[in-house]
């Protein structure tokens, strides 16, 4: 447990460095995303000892399916942002609204991938603390997406408003 705590503190310090500018601006989507990453990191550290225990149990199989889906969705989303979104800096600084692939159905595949990953990690060893961390990650990812949508409306205007009417946030046809 001491090793997990040390890793958590060091990884958190790294996240603080990466998100330093965002943490100074509570109005930015990166501010909320930092806390989502912290909650996911907490889940990983909480469940690290259980990662490969009982690998063929129902929960482990579902966990691995969620984690694999998370990775696939993240890779797909990054690829589309890079190739179609035409970023003019960091990957999230797209110059075009992406409406193909997963973006045809949901506005936030990358945050959706983090949701899949968080709940996949949770299922490694479900616990009350894990539920709390999973709910925190979910809440902060929803907050991140909502703030980012405001930023995208300011940047892309009616094109993004139209896109919002045609798609869902995380789950095709539902939410």
Spans where pLDDT lies below 50 across 5 or more residues: none
Number of helices: 7
Structural class: mainly alpha
**First CA to last CA: what distance?**
37 Å
Q: Summarize the main sheet.
A: none
Radius of gyration: 17 Å
How many β strands by DSSP?
A: 0
Helix content: 55-70%
The averaged pLDDT comes out at: 94
Helices and strands, in order, run as HHHHHHH
Strand fraction band? Answer: under 5%
Shape: globular
Characterise this structure.
The protein has 7 helices and no strands. With about 180 residues, the chain is mostly helical. Helix 5 (about 110-120) packs antiparallel against helix 6.
Quick recap:
The protein is an all-alpha fold. It has helices at about 1-20, 20-25, 30-45, 60-85, 110-120, 130-155, 160-165.
Any key phrases for this structure?
mainly alpha
Write the layout of secondary structure elements.
Blueprint: H1 2-18, H2 20-23, H3 29-47, H4 58-83, H5 109-122, H6 128-156, H7 158-166
Helix pairs in contact: 1-3, 3-5, 3-6, 4-5, 5-6, 6-7
């Amino acid at each position: 447990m001491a090793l997990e705590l040390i890793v958590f503190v060091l990884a958190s310090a790294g996240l603080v460095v990466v998100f330093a500018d965002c943490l100074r601006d509570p109005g930015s989507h990166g501010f909320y995303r930092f806390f989502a990453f912290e909650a996911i990191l907490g889940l990983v550290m909480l469940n690290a000892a259980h990662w490969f225990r009982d690998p063929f149990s129902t929960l482990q199989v579902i966990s691995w399916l969620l984690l694999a889906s998370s990775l696939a969705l993240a890779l797909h989303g990054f690829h589309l942002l890079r190739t179609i979104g035409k970023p003019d800096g960091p990957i999230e600084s797209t110059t075009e609204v992406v409406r193909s692939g997963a973006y045809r159905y949901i506005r936030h595949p990358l945050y959706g991938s983090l949701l899949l990953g968080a709940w996949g990690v949770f299922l490694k060893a479900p616990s009350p603390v894990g539920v709390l961390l999973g709910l925190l990650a979910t809440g902060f990812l929803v907050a991140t997406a909502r703030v980012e949508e405001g930023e995208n409306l300011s940047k892309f205007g009616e094109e993004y408003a139209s896109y919002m009417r045609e798609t869902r946030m995380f789950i095709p046809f539902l939410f």
